[in-house]
Structure formats: C-alpha cells, structure tokens
Amino acid sequence: MAKFIPGTDTQVKSDEPLLDVVASERAPLKPGKHVFQLVVTDDSGNDSDTASVTIIIQDTERPTAVVDLMNPDGSRNSEPAVTVPFGKPFLLTGDRSSDIGGAVKVWNWTLLQG
C-alpha cells in the first residue's frame, strides 16, 4: 500500500490502488478542506480524466467551516473551484460546518475578491 505523509509528500505514484494517508500529531493535515486528486494510467500509457475527493479535517477545539455550492437540482458541489453562469444567481451553504462537542451558531460570509 502506498503511503502519503502530510508535510512531506505532495504527490505519490504507486502500482497499488490504496493510499494510506499517514496523518499524525507530528505530521497532521490542517483542519479544513483538502482535495485529493487521482489520475490512473492504463497498460497502454493512457491517462484517465481526473477524479477527486474532498476530505474535511475537523478541529477538535474550534469549529470547522465547510462551504458547498448548491446546484439548481438541490445536489451539492463541494469542489474548491466551481463555475457558475454569468449573471445567474447561485446558492452557497455552510450547513456541513461543525463543532465537536458544541454547535455552530453564526455563519459569517465575506466576499474576498470581486
């Protein structure tokens, strides 16, 4: 099984399908969203399209904020970069934000670039 060590590795190439993300107190993934991407190559040398998964690391002391775009059909898009049509409204949700041992009470939204 391939191993990914936070703070040391940024990319791991392997001949096995499993990736062990060896996070620890010495080598943690910081609280928040982390997107892992996968491209596979077949025996003819052809690369796949990318696939990705968003992993949310919860903070054990502070709340963890999570933002998703709500698609018009009600499904959720948690990709870190999302394209929306010009001049059209869109809906963001922070409902997956959490606090271990407590409850999120305020969602403070800010547009950083515009």
Helix/strand layout:
Blueprint lengths: L1 E3 L14 E3 L10 E7 L12 E7 L10 E3 L5 E2 L13 E3 L21
Parallel strand pairs: 1-2
Antiparallel strand pairs: 3-4, 5-6, 5-7
Separate helix tally: 0
List SSEs in N-to-C order.
Answer: EEEEEEE
- How many strand segments? 7
Note the main sheet.
3 strands, antiparallel
Radius of gyration: 18 Å
Roughly how many Å apart are the termini? 44 Å
Helix content: under 10%
Low-pLDDT sequence parts: none
Major sheet: order of its strands?
6-5-7
Q: What structural category characterises the helix and strand content?
A: mainly beta
In quaternary terms, these chains amount to: single chain
Shape: flat
Q: Report the portion of residues in β strands.
A: 15-25%
Summed over residues and divided by their number, the pLDDT gives a mean of 85
Q: What do these coordinates show?
A:
There is one protein chain. The chain has strands at 2-4, 19-21, 32-38, 51-57, 68-70, 76-77, 91-93. With 114 residues, it is mainly beta. Strand 5 and strand 6 (76-77) form a beta hairpin. The model has no long low-confidence stretch (mean pLDDT 85).
